[in-house]
Amino acid sequence: SQILAAWNQLPDIMKALAARDIEILDYYNPQDAYWQRVYRDFTHSFATGGIGKISFYGCKRQVPTSRIVATMCHETGHVIDQRLSRYSDRQPWKDAMQADEAIAGRKSPTSYGENANAEDFAESMKMYITNPNWFAQEFPNRKRLIDSILRSF
Predict the structure, then answer these.
(1) 3-state secondary structure of 115
(2) How far apart are the C-alpha atoms of 113 and 70, rounded to whole Å?
(3) Greatest C-alpha distance within the chain
(4) Burial class (CB within 10 angstroms; exposed 0-12, middle 13-18, buried 19+) of 125
(5) What are 86-125's pLDDT values in tens digits?
(6) How many CA atoms lie within 13 A of 92 on its CB side?
(7) Sign of the CA dihedral with 146 first, then 106, 49, and 88 last
(8) Which residues pair with 21 in a beta bridge?
């Protein structure tokens, strides 16, 4: 019921672009050991997303619906990035990251986003939706790109 409540809070554009298959698993992501080696300060996956599916892991306890909404926005960011053939690794995104770092004084909207360009893209998408005024002020170049990307769908 929490997943459905979170889904109903998503903006229409996110619903249109999000994966349609959402699974709720009572075990942790088997890939967590790999990500613990690759990403800084990583403990375990709450969710993963890609074309077609968002998987929620270790769902044995209640979490705030706002966290699920934010997670769905993040995972939908990965879906969008994949649909655009890894836009996060293209020069326009890299240029926006560099320009925004000069404005915001940090590399990414969140420390998790600093792990990889794909995570920065997903975290940027999350903040674009969940904290739009702050995101527009701190990361205006990424905001402009996301505006353009979402208009293209």
Answers:
(1) helix
(2) 14
(3) 42
(4) buried
(5) 999 999 999 999 999 999 999 999 999 999 999 999 999 9
(6) 11
(7) positive
(8) 53
8 A C-beta contact, residue 91 and residue 99: no
Using DSSP bridges, classify how beta strands 53-56 and 47-50 pair: parallel, antiparallel or unpaired. antiparallel
Please give the single-letter amino acid code of residue 61: R
Q: How far apart are CA 89 and CA 147, in angstroms?
A: 18
Q: Where are the alpha helices (DSSP H) in the chain?
A: 2-9, 12-17, 32-38, 65-83, 91-104, 117-130, 132-138, 140-151
Distance of alpha carbon 111 from alpha carbon 68, whole angstroms: 19
The model's pTM is 0.89
